[in-house]
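Board notes (copied after class):
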Amino acid sequence: MKRIFLLFFFFLPLLLSAAPAPVEEGDGNEAVVEKEAAAKEESKKFDWHLNLRGRVSLATENRDFLFKCDYLRVQLTGTFAKHFFFRFRQRFNKAITDGNYLSATDYLYLSWRKNDWEILGGKTYVACGGFEYQATSYDIYIRPAFFSGLSGMYNYALNGARHFKNETLWLQVSNSLYSNRASNLLGYSILLQGRQGVWQHSWSVNAFERAKGHYNFYVCLGNRFHIGEIAFVDLGLVHRLDLDRPTFFKDFSAVTKFKVRATEWMRIFGKATWDYKQSGIEDPMLPDGTDSWQAGCGLEFFPVPHSEMVRLHLVYFNRDGALNCVLAGVGLNLDLR
């Protein structure tokens, strides 16, 4: 009965999708950020943009209280010559591990773009589809269990892209998603992103080595439906496949979310996630026998008029009908040029 209810809750937002125009959320679509910044003012010899983001939350999990800064990073982007774009993003809420001083660095890459072709090399996000995966942690309050295993979601890669009018096709060779630092495990990804009317999509097919010569295959489907200028609805599915045995709908993560611009200073959102994995499947991302769901809602307030520099949040969610959590806090999004 629980699965039927969750599937119903997952597909119900399809009924809400109508009318054009986007409501963007943070830099949730990383490829869009790269595309817009690379195309901006190519004639300048040097153009930069510095952004600082931080979020402090008070969490009450059942009756336990935890007050912490759960997100803090600085990002520098810009151009330094015609057709060349750089990006650097450092997180301070992530530990430097294994003596690797880039382990807390999300982005450190250089890209070249001309005539709708692009080549990118360095440390970047592994090209999995879905708006949940590509959203910055600053905008995520309720995180699926699948994300707890994504230590290698930012890794060293070589990307090639072809930009069309409404679509971008990415090809990527990277360190495997199962490798959180440089290793001999590789991943191969095809990512398609774009928008057609009210429908925005981010889809990928991926092959990641979990051990040398042994691959896990991913099909990632991210769909966003815009409702005028006031709301959007997300439907996302990450399906993990083991070709050595039938695993269809035996290892997956599903996310559905809506967000409404209620007023100039307030946003309302709701979200549900479902992570499922049967026992015996060779997938390091989730423990055997995982069957975990979450559902919650929240409010975001912007006290500074006509600005999203300061954001207050109040969020409630329940996990597996047992853990109740309330988050309250403040975020800062500061841009310098």
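Comment from the instructor: The first strand starts at residue 47 and ends at 61. Helices lie at 2-11, 30-39, 131-134.
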